[in-house]
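Notebook, p. 212. Picked up where the previous page left off. The plan for this session was modest: take the two constructs that came back from the sequencing core last week, fold each one, and keep the raw output in the notebook itself so nobody has to go hunting through shared drives later. Recording the first one now, exactly as returned: residue sequence, then the C-alpha cell string.
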Amino acid sequence: MPSLQQKARINDVLHQIHRDLSAPLTGAGLAQVAAYSEQHFHRLFKRVTGESLHRYIRRVRLEHAANLLMFEPATSVRDIALKCGYNSLASFTRVFGEQFGISPGRWRQQESIRREPYLSDPEIAACAERVASLPLPQPDLIELENQWVAYVRHLGYDRSIRLAWQALQAWAAAEHRNFTHQIGLHHSNPALTPLEHCRYVACLGIDSPVSQRGMINTMIIPGGLHARFKFTGHYGELLPWINRLQDEWLASSGLKTGASPAFTEYQRNQFLDAEERFELYYYQPVSFY
C-alpha cells in the first residue's frame, strides 16, 4: 500500500499531466516532478493509479481529443492531435482507432457512436429524461483568477464521492479552516468515459498553503475565460445537464473548449446534502482560438 507521502507526490504528477495535455509528458520529466528515480516512479505510479504512466497519459489525451472532435467541428483533426500531444497525425489516428474502434474523422461525423456511458446507470438515465424537457440555462462569460485548493482525488462517479468530501470536511475541521468554498473538479467527460473510470476531485478553496501533505494535497485550478452555468437539482441530474450544455450550447457557441478541466462551485453539495440536492455554478473553460 503506497504511503500518504507517495500518494502526495503522484498527485503532483497528475496535476502536472492535466495542466497541459499537449506538453511533452515524459517519464523522466514526470519522475523529476515526483522526486523519484524513473524506474521507481513508474512502479509507484501504477500502484497508486492502477494504470501504467503510458496508458494513463494516452487515455486522458484521447478522451480529450474525442471531446474536441465532438465540440470543435471547425478545428482540423491535425490541430486537435497537436492540442492533445500528438505531433504525428498518423500515430494519432492509429491510437485513436485502438481506443475507440473508429477513426477520428468518422467519430466526428457519426452521432450514433456517442454512447453516453452514464446512461447505463438507471437512476441517471431517468434523470436525463426529466432534464431533457427543461430549458437549458444561458451562461455568463467570466474571467477567473487562479485558485489555490486543498483536494482529495476520487475514482468513479457515484455516491461514493461522498467519502472524499467527508475526508476533506474532517481535515478542514481539524485545520480550523472554513469549509464553504467547495469545488468539484471534473477530469472526465461521462459522455465518453464509463462512470467507474471517471476521475473526480473534491476541492476546498484556500488562501494559505497546506503545511503537511498526505491524504490532503494542494494545487492550483487555472483561471482564464469560462462559461458559467447555474444549475439546481437532485443527485443524478448534473451529468445530463453537463452533456446538454456541451451538445446544445458549446457546439453552437463558436467558442472552443479550454484545456483545463471543468469544475463546479457548490452552494449546496449533493454529496453532503441530506436530501441529495445541489445548487451550483458549473464552469466550462473556453477560448476564442
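Okay, moving on. Second construct, recorded in the same format:
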Amino acid sequence: MDSVDLSVLKTLHEWQATGQSLWLVTVVETFGSSPRPPGAMLALRGDGQAVGSVSGGCIEDDLVLRAKRGELPNDRCEVLTFGVTKEEARRFRLPCGGVIRVVVEPVQNRDWVAQLLQLVQAHRLVRRTLHFATRQVELDDAGRTDNISFDGSTLVTVHGPRWRMLIIGAGQSSAYLARMAQALDYEVHVCDPRAEMRATWDVPDTLLSGEMPDDAVIALQPDRATAIIALTHDPKLDDMALLEALKSPAFYVGALGSKANNEKRRERLALFDLTSQEIDRLHGPVGLRIGSRTPPEIAVSILAHLISIRNQPELSAGSIRNNKQRQTNRQEVCS
C-alpha cells in the first residue's frame, strides 16, 4: 500500500486512544473521471480532524462537516454517493461529471487496526473483509492479483506492498530510490555482496541481503509485479543480476549507465544464454530522460518510468514488451 493509505491506518490506530468517534471512509466505485481510485481511504474523527484523501477536496470537506454535526452513523456502515447530478459534480468539483461512491465505516474495534498494521509492517499482503450486517472484520492473506471489491453487503480491500522492487547495490542512488519506492507501494529488497556498502545502509523497512546478485534474483522469484534495478555501476555485479532478471517475468529490468556503456553491456549479455528478445527488455539507460544527474534525480527518473508503465494498460505489469523507440526516451547517466 502506498504511504498515504498507510498513514491513514497509523493515524486511525493512534486516534483510537482518544475515545472520540472514528470512521474509515473508503472509495469503492468511481464513474467517469475521479481524483482518487477505488481503495483510497480517509480517516475521520468526530471533532472534524481528517487524514487521507478520497477526492482531493470538497468531498472531504463535506464529510468533515457531517462528522462535526453528528450526521455520520456510529452503529452501522453507510454508502454515500457524490456527483450524481450536475449540481453535485460542480459542488464537489468532480471533473468531467465524475461520480464517487464511498463506504463510511464506524471504527470501534481496536484489534483489527493494530493487527493489520503489524501484518503490513511484516511485508505481508493482507485481504481485509468487512461484513456490513455485523461490522465484523476478517483479515487473511491476499494474492498480488487481488483487488478491491464491493457487492453492497461485503467490502474487500487489499493492504500491504502490492509491488516488489529488487535493487542491486546499496549506494546513495539506491537509498533515494528505496525511500521513494516505498511511498509508491513497493516492498523493497536490496542486494549488495560488498560488506562495506551494506554497513552504511540506513533505509528502514527494506530487506537487505549480502548474497550474490544472481542468487538474489533467483531467490526472489520475480513475477509480473516485480521491478529489478541494477545500480552498482560494476559490471561484475550488475550483469550477474541481469542475466537472471531478463529471463524472469519481471515487468521492468533496468541498469544504470550511459548509452555507450549499456550498448557494451548488451554485447556482453549476448555472449550468454539470452535471446535477443530478452536482451531487448533491458531498460538501459534506466529511467526516463529528464536530464537527471544527482542521486535523487536519478531515483525520480526511474520511478517516473515505472509509474508510466504501471498506469498504462498496454505497458502494465502483465506486459513485458519493449522496443527501440522507448529506448531513446530513457535517461542517459554518464559513467
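Notes on construct two before I forget. The first strand starts at residue 22 and ends at 31.
Flagging for discussion at group meeting.
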